[in-house]
Amino acid sequence: MSFSPVIETRLNVWTLAAVLTALYGLFGIARGWWHASLGKRRRVVRAYRRIAPYVRHDYVTEQFGEPAWQHKATVRQYSAPTGGNECDEPLHDVEVTVRTWPLGLLGYLVTWCNDDDEVLMYSLTTRSRLFRPRVSIGPYRITLGKTPLAALPHPNVEDSGPWFELGARRFSYAEEHYFGNPGGYLRWAVGMSDAGSPLTPPIGLNGDAWAAEDVAAFRRAARANSVLVIGPAIDTEGVLPRGIAPDLDTVRLLELRHPIRVALTTRYYAAKTAVERWKDRKREVREGPLP
Asked: How far apart are CA 88 and CA 71, in angstroms?
């Protein structure tokens, strides 16, 4: 006599509701992760490629939202000749408004605008492995955070750098590139900022009499993490190398990590400190107080 098990084929409404609720929750988690990482990366790169020198600040705001920081600065601009005659003062000071956008955990965008709120310069900095945008440097295309500086031509013009600073805590490096008509008569400052990632300090370079072989070795090792697009008629004296990216002392105070991650990190280090103190007390009991 064969036995056939009874299979319940009726639909359990509560089980179905639980499954659908779990799937909806997982979908929400996946969607949130996508919008905060890979999806946001695509939106940022697409918005960055839509801006150019002399676009309106309102247009940049439409692409990236409101900036987090804003302050005044002074740059030097070349005066346009009038009547076919050269100006007596080819350079004059212009007050600009510098605005900084934190792009979540991905990086930073900075714009330099004149009194008419036209963008004279703008920079992009990566600070995450998830954010490796492909950007144009004249006829070249590089990947921020991945392409070495040596992939670009060496700046052999005297006023094209390189500029670098190396202090006890801060550092920066920048070099300028100009390609004439193929580059739309724009200039690009490419380099390394301590506000970005990866970090390669210009160790070994001498600011007074640097050796060409030292700079060549640094350009082979360093990956560009920042690029500054410079509009026509702007002099970069006093801007580079720090102006290639936002000021680290300002942006580092902004907590960009997820609150849950901050809480877990805090608890981890608190537990680690407690364990180390417990080990020290146990060692003192066993060996006596330290001399």
From this structure: 30
Give dist(CA 212, CA 202) in Å, integer. Answer: 13
Packing angle between helix 57-64 and helix 38-48, nearest 10 degrees? 170
Long-range CB contacts (within 8 A, 24+) of 182-186: 182/138, 182/139, 183/138, 183/139, 185/232, 186/53, 186/138, 186/229, 186/230, 186/231, 186/232
Distance between CA atoms of 107 and 101, rounded to whole angstroms? 9
Digit-coded pLDDT (tens) for 50-109:
999 999 999 999 999 999 999 999 988 877 654 455 555 578 888 999 999 999 889 999
Q: Which of 42-51, 212-221, 250-259 has the lowest mean pLDDT?
A: 250-259
Q: How far apart are CA 260 and CA 168, in angstroms?
A: 33
Q: What per-residue confidence (pLDDT) applies to 8?
A: 56
d(CA 5, CA 22): 30
Residue 56: count other Cβ atoms within 10 Å of its Cβ: 14
- Tokens 């190396």 locate to 166
Residue 189 token pair:
């400052």
Instruction: Measure the CA–CA gap between 66 and 57, rounded to whole angstroms.
Output: 10
The pLDDT tens digits of the residues spanning 39-51 come to 678 899 999 999 9
The DSSP H or E segment spanning 93 is: strand 91-102
Q: Which residue has the tokens 């300028």?
A: 176
What single letter denotes the amino acid at residue 235? D
The beta strands (E) that lie in 103-250 are given as 107-113, 119-126, 134-137, 140-143, 163-166, 171-178, 187-193, 226-230, 234-235
d(CA 279, CA 214): 46
